[in-house]
Each structure stands twice: as structure tokens, then as C-alpha cells.
């Protein structure tokens, strides 16, 4: 099995302390993530690193310059105590058709919602993604994303740490594999506590993040 899934869009590294995690990534890899933008009203902002091709890493955490959001911040950043890789996303050729197919095969990836953020130059970047309570709670089954006519983040001249491998552990790997198949994607999953790890190539050598 290929350790890098087809149509991988991005990985999500969530953190309770964005500045500290960005500094740690820079120290470990020798590559400084680029500011991505602000999720207005959601209380988060992100930094980005290219993983090669059209894939990238999103480091997301609370934005101290925003007021407390009305609801929970994305990716449960309010509930985590340390930085960790919480989930991943794929970009199917037709988002709505992929959702319909998955549902017909017994897995509901969630409803499709619009999202947006402001880039550092003030540009509004908009996209659509699946989100909802029906998504698998482990984060090991990817959410789906469609950038539409927006410029993809990987096309913004990001600093790069090419992705070498992506893998997961789960108490029931077969369950995860069955759900991945409904989305026409795959990921190496072995038995163990729920976890997602990735390894990138850097100027300091390969580095693995959990």
C-alpha cells in the first residue's frame, strides 16, 4: 500500500498554543511555516507548509487576537493539551458525488458546508468541506474538501517539507479500512491506540510528527 494517499489535500496538526508549535516545527525541521490566515468568528488561525505537489500541512490553533467564539473552535483545539495530528483531508474530483457514493456504501462523511478565511494580504479564501456529527470520531477517516475556483494553498509559494509517509493506528484497523474504501482512498492502519503520524523530509533529515 502506498503510504501517501491519493488525492491527499492536507494534514491537520492542531495545537492549544500556535506560536509554540510553529516554533517547535521550525526548530525540528529547519523550515519556518508560513502564516496562512484567520478563521474569522471561529477563534482560530493557521500556518502552512507544503508537503509537495498539491498537498500541505495546516498547523491550527487559537487566535489570541480574536474574541472567544460563540461555539467550540474547529478541530477541538479547546480540548487538546498538546499539539497532535488530528485528521486529514482529501480532495475528490466531485465533492457532492463523493458524499453521495459514500452514503450509498454505508458511511456518511457529513453535510457539505462553506468555509472561509482571510489571508495575510486580506484576500478572502473560500471553500467547501464535509463536517458534522456523522464523521468518524477518530479523525482517521478524512474529511472531503473542494476549493472550487479559489487558489489552492499549495500554489502560494509555501516553504516545503516533502511528505515521506503517512500512517495510522486504531483499535480496529479493519473498520477504518472499510470506511476509507467508501471514500475511494486508503491509508496504512495498524492495531493500537487511535493515532495519526506523518514523516517529512527536511534540511535536518526525516522528521516524524504525531
Task: Provide an overview of this structure.
- This protein has 210 residues and is of the alpha+beta class.
- It is built from three helices and twelve strands, in the order βαββββαββββαβββ.
- It has helices spanning 18-29, 95-104, 173-182; strands at 8-14, 34-39, 44-52, 55-62, 84-90, 111-118, 124-131, 143-146, 163-170, 189-191, 195-200, 207-209.
- It has an eight-stranded mixed β-sheet.
- It starts with 7 loop residues before the first strand and ends with a strand.
Task: Please render the helix and strand layout as text.
Layout: E1 8-14, H1 18-29, E2 34-39, E3 44-52, E4 55-62, E5 84-90, H2 95-104, E6 111-118, E7 124-131, E8 143-146, E9 163-170, H3 173-182, E10 189-191, E11 195-200, E12 207-209
Parallel strand pairs: 1-4, 5-8, 9-10
Antiparallel strand pairs: 1-5, 2-3, 3-4, 6-7, 7-8, 9-11, 11-12
Domain Glyoxalase-like: 8-183
Protein name: VOC family protein
List the keywords.
210 residues; alpha+beta; eight-stranded mixed beta sheet; 12 strands; VOC family protein; Glyas_Bleomycin-R_OHBP_Dase; Glyoxalase-like_dom
Number of helices: 3
Distance between the termini: 20 Å
Number of strands: 12
Largest sheet: 8 strands, mixed
Q: Which value, in Å, is the CA radius of gyration? A: 16 Å
Overall 3D shape? globular
Poorly predicted ranges: none
Widest beta sheet: strand line-up:
2-3-4-1-5-8-7-6
Q: Helicity range of the residues? A: 10-25%
β-strand percent reads 35-45%
Question: What is the ordering of alpha helices and beta strands?
Answer: EHEEEEHEEEEHEEE
Structural class: alpha+beta
Mean pLDDT: 94
Domain Glyoxalase-like: 8-183
InterPro entries: Glyas_Bleomycin-R_OHBP_Dase (IPR029068), Glyoxalase-like_dom (IPR025870)
Organism: Streptomyces justiciae
Pfam family, one: Glyoxalase_3
Amino acid at each position: 500500500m502506498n503510504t501517501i494517499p491519493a488525492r491527499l489535500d492536507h494534514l491537520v496538526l492542531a495545537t492549544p498554543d500556535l506560536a509554540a508549535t510553529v516554533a517547535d516545527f521550525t526548530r525540528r525541521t529547519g523550515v519556518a511555516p508560513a502564516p496562512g490566515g484567520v478563521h474569522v468568528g471561529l477563534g482560530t488561525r493557521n500556518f502552512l507548509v507544503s508537503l509537495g505537489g498539491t498537498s500541505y500541512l495546516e498547523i491550527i490553533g487559537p487566535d489570541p487576537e480574536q474574541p472567544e467564539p460563540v461555539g467550540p473552535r474547529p478541530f477541538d483545539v479547546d480540548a487538546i493539551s498538546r499539539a497532535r495530528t488530528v485528521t486529514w483531508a482529501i480532495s475528490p474530483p466531485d465533492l457532492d458525488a463523493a458524499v453521495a457514493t459514500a452514503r450509498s456504501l454505508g458511511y456518511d462523511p457529513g453535510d457539505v458546508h462553506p468555509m472561509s478565511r482571510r489571508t495575510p494580504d486580506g484576500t478572502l479564501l473560500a471553500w467547501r468541506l464535509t463536517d458534522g456529527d456523522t464523521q468518524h470520531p477518530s479523525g482517521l477517516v478524512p474529511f472531503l474538501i473542494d476549493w472550487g475556483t479559489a487558489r489552492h494553498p499549495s500554489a502560494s509559494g509555501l516553504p516545503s517539507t516533502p511528505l515521506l509517509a503517512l500512517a495510522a493506528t486504531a483499535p480496529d484497523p479493519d473498520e477504518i479500512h472499510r470506511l476509507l474504501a467508501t471514500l475511494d482512498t486508503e491509508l496504512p492502519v495498524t492495531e493500537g491506540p487511535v493515532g495519526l503520524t506523518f514523516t517529512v523530509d527536511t534540511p535536518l533529515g526525516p522528521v516524524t510528527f504525531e
